[in-house]
From TrEMBL:
Similarity section: Belongs to the PC-esterase family. TBL subfamily.
Domain of life: Eukaryota
UniProt keyword annotation of Glycosyltransferase present: no
Alphabetical keyword list: Membrane, Signal-anchor, Transmembrane, Transmembrane helix
Location (main, coarse): membrane
Occurrences of domain Trichome birefringence-like C-terminal (ranges): 158-446
Coiled coil start-end: none
Molecular-function GO term, any one: O-acetyltransferase activity
Residues spanning the membrane: 48-69
Entry protein name: Trichome birefringence-like N-terminal domain-containing protein
Subcellular location, record wording: Membrane
Entry membrane topology: Single-pass membrane protein
Species of provenance: Crotalaria pallida
Amino acid sequence: MVVSKIIISRPVPLSLSFLHSLASSKMKFQAMELLFGKNTPKQLIPKVTLLAVFAILVFTITPLSYPLFRYSSSSLKKNGSNQPSSSAFDDLNESASLPSTSIKKCDIFTGEWVPNPKAPYYSNKTCWAIHEHQNCIKYGRPDTEFMKWRWKPNGCELPIFNPFQFLELVRGKSLAFVGDSVGRNQMQSMICLLSRAEWPIDVSYARDDYFMRWKYESYNFTMAAFWTPHLVRSKQSDSKGPGQTGLFNLYLDEPDEKWITQIEDFDYVILNGGHWFTRSMVFYEEQKIVGCHYCLLENVPDLTMYYGYRKAFRTAFKAINSLKNFKGITFLRTFAPSHFENGIWNQGGNCVRTTPFRSNETQLEGLNLEYYMIQLEEFKTAEREARKKGLKYRLLDTTLATLLRPDGHPSRYGHWPSENVTLYNDCVHWCLPGPIDTWSDFLLEMLKMEGVRSAQEKLRLDKV
Ligand SMILES: *[C@@H]1O[C@H](CO)[C@@H](O)[C@H](O)[C@H]1NC(C)=O
Ligand SMILES: *[C@@H]1O[C@H](CO)[C@@H](O)[C@H](O)[C@H]1NC(C)=O
Ligand SMILES: *[C@@H]1O[C@H](CO)[C@@H](O)[C@H](O)[C@H]1NC(C)=O
Ligand SMILES: *[C@@H]1O[C@H](CO)[C@@H](O)[C@H](O)[C@H]1NC(C)=O
Ligand SMILES: *[C@@H]1O[C@H](CO)[C@@H](O)[C@H](O)[C@H]1NC(C)=O
Ligand SMILES: *[C@@H]1O[C@H](CO)[C@@H](O)[C@H](O)[C@H]1NC(C)=O
């Protein structure tokens, strides 16, 4: 196997900060939205007004520091090694490459979108994995500029996804996308990006769009999607409910067995969730009703959607931490804001912009902010617990980059104009090709950093 040498660049203070200081907001994000799914009638939904507005958000998560590094083009060949191929970083001379005092850390998740004339790297003609509802070019989206951007972190570069490098890193491994259809959207983006190297074969256990499994045979790499919009066990108890978008029973202390029973052998698990928590829900704990979100049931206190959202992630993380044989890395892919403007999703709201925002043109607020903060808080707690057991948690912190892409959604180009679809103007999912492709840039960079991190951890141990 070709082993690449890591080069650490520039020293910088430690911290993964989400620092986002912004001018006044141009957009008010509407709280109500929903994803395509089973049983989703196109009907009314209550309007929720959210007032939380923060000018500056600073989160410092010390264990999550991201060193900047690049792969050297002069790769080293490793001979006669008895080490497994996954240890691509063993050549790193820790004491030489990682001066203990200061190492350049770059928060790859804070930055701006900059033009990239070379993009996109696939099209609807070269990739069959594009979901119909995200095949924007097929359905007549006239503008193409939205495909021609890349993410530029402040203070470093984020390399464009290299499918060969990625597959080399995940050789013999497996990756699970656990969550809603935005997670599936990400997996399909990744299949298209990887197609330059190899097409996967379908090794799904059943013919179910919601639970696909793909295998990259020459790399022995498996990728699977698990559809679990609430992460915890949930059941639709009424197709209408007060909001006319269904009433769901959520068993907040029970992880959804559709994924938790399946992921034990996976090396990487990417969790996501959010859009489904805006609907009416009744919350159960220990099999008793404890409250709800907009259920309008007598004697059931409204605990807000945020209560359910927090508990769902808490339960999901706890369940992962309790798995006996799980040795994988848990990624939280943070909430991906939608971009309905001039109305909520079923009241004429739409996303018609054709260029990204600069970071000073919008800000995280309302539901997006609440969701994001809940995720970070639950993640931190879970990560602390996990570390005691030697389990790794990583934040795939896509929220800011995603917030800045109001232009990346299908809008009305996810279907024929005559088609009767739930989300007529889809400002939730992402056109392919499109901004969601960048999530793979992030993921690859994070996987590369795993080597540096384990080296750092070793180094830290050595010094004790
Ligand atoms: C490494 O392998 C190549 C052939 O694959 C050989 O030419 C070279 O001498 C080997 N180097 C060492 C240090 O074993
Ligand atoms: C690593 O680098 C240090 C400092 O340059 C050097 O003293 C040491 O011998 C190197 N170790 C190995 C295993 O190459
Ligand atoms: C791809 O998009 C074109 C429009 O540019 C459309 O005519 C064609 O049907 C699409 N093909 C597929 C396979 O989606
Ligand atoms: C493929 O990877 C799996 C782990 O994902 C491993 O158990 C299996 O032995 C590998 N097969 C080959 C042929 O390397
Ligand atoms: C945002 O920043 C850019 C460049 O830094 C500047 O040209 C622009 O005027 C700023 N916009 C706002 C709304 O502050
Ligand atoms: C669209 O679908 C909904 C629910 O499936 C149905 O109630 C409505 O009548 C349909 N509208 C049209 C124009 O077919």
